[in-house]
Amino acid sequence: MLIDPKETATVASTAAAAPRQKLRLGDVLVQQALISPEQLQQALEVQRGTGKRLGRLLVEAGIVTEEAVAHGLARQLRVPVVNLKSFPLKSETVRLLSESPARRHRAIVLEDKGEHLLVGFVDPLDIVAYDELTRILKRPVRVAVVPESQLPPVLDRHYRRTEEISGLAKALEKDVGDAVDFGALEASVGQEGAPVVRLLQSVFEDALQVGASDVHLEPQETGLLIRSRIDGILQTQTTADKRIAAALAQRLKLMAGLDISEKRLPQDGRFSLRLKERTVDVRLSTLPSQYGESVVMRLLGQGDSVRRLDEIGMPQPMLLRFKEILGRSSGMVLVTGPTGSGKTTTLYAALAELDAEQHKIITVEDPIEYRLPGLTQVQVNDKIELSFARVLRATLRQDPDVILVGEMRDPETAEIGLRGAITGHLVLSTLHTRDAISTPFRLLDMGAPPYMVASSLQAVIAQRLVRMNCENCAEPHVATAQEAGWLSALGGPAAAAERTLRGRGCSACNGTGYSGRIGVYEMLEMDPALAQAATASDPGTFSALAGEKLRGRTMAHHALALVRAGRTSVAESMRLANDFEA
To answer: pLDDT (tens digit, 9 = 90+) per residue, 525-536?
Structure first.
């Protein structure tokens, strides 16, 4: 899509070749009256001291916007400005230019017009870059201008390191093939700079580049499948020879300090990586499978900012009640949902609401996912018998006001947490249940005394994450018969005719139609009637009372509200409906 269609009727007809005269960005911006000569001189003085690009300095100083710079250059050179957020890029076209020159010259191939290529430049005045790309592409090049901040994320999406990972996988295949015994392979795996090390480095960098939460290495009959989970959905990165699976698993075990000789039993571990000036904690799990060890890695970014409760998408009435509950001095609040549903994010958003200067807050986790100042944070370690239960018992002797327990994993932890909630502490934790109504009876199934559950449990929040419509390609969507039935069941007959949105797929969302995720929530507050039903261990009465209390305020109803607001699609809400609807 062209940002300024008035100036450029079509990309093909107006995209001109690069200027052969030597122009400077500062002079162009002054000629276009976007900056004054005095501002240019001041920026040039700063540039001499910092070495930064002039355009970036002017934008950072607030003298001119990035869009104004792009439009000014386009007017001067009579070329189009292209909005990469909505332009229909094709990966095969983008990859006509390899990643290294694209990043070095800040350029991207936008369209293949047959007789020429349309190439977007951040700096279309760079004649050296134009000549170099013309030589590499071996085709006539016509120029367009692209905003600087839009280019890096687009390059990250289209250059997924697939070729690099495939090449390193083939190099590792050769290493594995040349290793005549286990000792030779083990020596190779342990060498820094060996193909196995460089392959894993590329896999992790690719995962970080696309915002993946997990990386899966899955040996199959026909090969090793390498996949990443992005916005909750697994996407295949590449398939390699399954012979390299053992070398990758062995190297990862070395990094996590696990037993590399044990391949028959599951193992769990963790390690840290430094990637692109970020420290990433990796939680590792291995599982023996038919064709080798399956390895799954959860990526946790150290130093990631903790979101506030107002930012996680919780409905306003629920948010206000939750904040009131957090103001209590005792009781237990549980956040439930499956793995990867955002439970820890919600708990830390809750902690961020509390005043750490006036409260003693202790967290017991495995692993510590966020680091907050003013908190005492403890990481359990089963290898030295530093279990949740053992740490929690010691925590109660540390005079805490608020205790966060990463997960209620076993009966002992659950009972100690409930006892702490009864004896004057606010206890926050997570539990794996389908919805809020079933949570108290999950505690009872774990062996917790009914009176403790009834007297200490204050509220249960159940949640899931749904993918949000891509803002760049969301468009009106006519509901299918099945979607109309779902809408009618939740919102009444008129809901089926309401306007909904769905992303059609574009370069910004990698063709999925979705970008990012948002939570859907329900909260069940305990009252005397519910407490009595829990004490009597009467699931029927409890479910009936709780269902009436949650009428119109379930996760499904929250998902419907997001659909009506255009934040997500009906199809995405229905995808999770079977999981959180009774």
So the answer is: 999 999 999 888
